[in-house]
Each structure stands twice: as C-alpha cells, then as structure tokens.
Amino acid sequence: MSADLPTESYDVVVVGGGPAGQTAALYSTRLGHRTALVDRGGGRAAMMQEVHNLIGTREETSGNELLGVGKEQLEEYGCDLHRDVIASCNRAGDDDDRIALEGNSAVYETDAVVLATGFNDVRPDPPLPRTGRGLHYCLHCDAHMFVDKPVYVMGHAESTAHVAGIMLNFTDDVDILTRGHEPEWSDDTATMLDDHPIDVIHADVSGVQNGEDGWLKALEFEDGTTREYKGGFAMYGSEYNNGLARELGCDLNDDGTVDVGDHGETSVDGVYAVGDVTPGHNQLPIALADGAKAGISIHFALREFPRTPEALREAGPVRDEEVPGIPDELLEQAVDFHTYGDE
Question: The domain at 7-120+238-322 falls in which architecture?
Fold first, then answer.
C-alpha cells in the first residue's frame, strides 16, 4: 500500500456505482453504517438510453439519469461518494478483520466490502450499428422493442442460435450473422435452426445504413447484398471484472463470475459480490435485489445491538450513553432528513 495516500476508514465500502452497488450502499447507510461508494464511472447501466422493466421508472429515463438520482439519494442519507479506481486490495496491516482497498486517490479501510464491478460485453469488430440504436446486448431488456420487426443475431456460438430461436417469439424475421466465422453450435442446434424460419448469413458485414432518426436501417454485406433490420443482438460473451475478487481470494465460477451465496456472500469473510459480476440474469430489478440483500446481510454481521451473551459477560450491561448504535454523523443527518412534521 502506498504511504503517500490518505486513509479513509469505513464500516462498508462498495466498489462500483451501478444499480446493484448503489442499492447495497443505500441499505448499508440507512441501516447505520459508515459507508463509501467508490465508483470509476461508466458501466453498462450508464450506457442505457432507456430504462426497461423497472416498475415506477418511465421508459424515457436514461441510465445516467437513473444513476444520477441514486447518487443524490446516497449523499442525502450520508454515504460518501468517491470517484476513484481501486487498483489493489488486501488485509489492512496486522488486522485480519479489516480490508484495505487502494485507489488512485486514497486507501479505503473497511470491515466489509461489496464488489459491484460488473462485466464488459465483448464487442464485435466494426462496422457496427450504434449501441442502443441498432446494436443491443440484453435480450430480456430489449426483445420487446423488436416485435414484428426484422432482427439480426450476431455471433457463431451456441448462445447465438439460442437467442435467435427466442426472438421468434417476437418476430417472424430473424437472421443469424456469423460474419465469416465457422459456426460452433452442435448438430442438434443445427437441426433446430433448419427446422425454424431463421436465415444464417455467412458473409461479413461491410457497411451500415442508418435512418434520419439515427436508428439502424440496413446492413450491407461483402457479397453485395443489403438486408433491412430494425436492430439486433451481439452474442460474443462477457469479460467479468473479477480482478479484485481474485486478489481477495474469492472463489470464481468457470465462466468468471464470482461464486456467491443467497445474500451475496463470497467464500471470503467480509467480502460480498452483487449484480452483473455474479451468476444470473443481468437485469436492473435483479441487481437492485442483489444490492438490498447484501446490505441487509452486512447489517446483521456488523450491527452492535443486541449484544451477545458473551459480549455482555465481558463488558457488562449496555449503558444508556452507548445507544443508539448509529454513528453520530449519520444520526445527525437522519434527524435532519426526517422532520416527522415537527416545526
């Protein structure tokens, strides 16, 4: 750890400012724990031009707007926000119970860390449609947008054929674009494709045509053909941001996701993982639930009261001046936040 960096001390540090990370930080802060959210900026949620499948949030809300409101809420409740990149992490000095996260601006020491570091979609080679205006990555988010519209699925693996088959539930015009790659799907999958109205186009994409509104209009191919599409999905896999989890010794799954329990707990005490870096559907509502469950689980682990019989035998009965257990700065902020109708 660098001796030149200041040290910030917290009960909980959340790494990653997407929906899962923000929700974990919200619960941790409101449940009375000194919490910091360390966010490098960007991320998949920030790129969303419209938010789908989130009750209470209108479609015209962008990902940036959603996350911006979340950060405002966190600050109102007393969570510290840091724009920083965590470069390394380990146990804090001689204290095996504390974790030290070294960023570019500070070292963050904490009792519990939540990894909400997500993943990056593997992008195909250009030429490509604009992301969100013809190029999409989330089937369950965006399939509804293409009801009765011509759609492509770009890729050459099993997942490509699987998604193409699913899209037949929404439209009768589905193409697979292998872009010159040899298909890697099984013989059974090839038979499935033969028995469904899905065209497999092997010629690579040579150009993109957009309409006046910026949406994809058509793709041009090296064989001289042009096909009209409203949009489609790229299926080239994911690169999980699991470096911090590896450094802390967390168990990983074969696909690179962090292995977690029902409440985001990893194989390492005090380390939790939530959202897209964990297994499951990559959906906003699921990310919110992941963050909430982790925040509540951390509260059970960190809260001071009621004290255990062992602690009471060692320290004696809890004195009036020791309660409430919420830190003074969060107590004052909570009192100011809630007027309860008082003058």
Answer: 3-Layer(bba) Sandwich (3.50)
Report the top-level CATH class of 135-234.
Answer: alpha beta
Structure tokens at 86: 């965590």
CB 324 within 8 A of CB 331: yes
pLDDT digits (tens, 9 = 90+) for 131-190: 989 999 999 999 999 999 999 999 999 999 999 999 999 999 999 999 999 999 999 999
Q: How far apart are the first and last CA of the chain?
A: 49
Beta-carbon count within 10 A of 100 CB: 19
The two three-digit tokens of residue 251, written as one number: 């168990």
CATH 3.50.50.60 domain extents, the chain: 7-120+238-322, 135-234
Buried b or exposed e, range 219-255, using 16+ CB within 10 angstroms: bbbeeeeebebbbbbbbbebebbbebbeebebebeee
Q: How confident is the model at residue 42 (pLDDT cuts 50, 70, 90)?
A: confident
Write the CB contacts of 189 (distance below 8 Å, at least 6 apart in sequence): 158, 161, 162
Q: Are 6 and 23 in contact (CB under 8 A)?
A: no
Q: Angle at CA 180, nearest 5°, toward 177 and 183?
A: 70
Q: Among 136, 142, 141, 139, which Cα is nearest to 123's?
A: 136
Q: Tokens in use for 95?
A: 């204290």
Q: Which residues does residue 80 pair with via DSSP β-bridges, in sequence order?
A: 36
- Collapsing DSSP to helix, strand or coil, 219 comes out as strand
Residue 35's identity, in one-letter code, is T
In Å, what is the CA distance from 176 to each residue of 5, 11, 197, 220? 51, 49, 11, 14
Cβ burial of 114 (10 Å; 0-12, 13-18, 19+) is buried
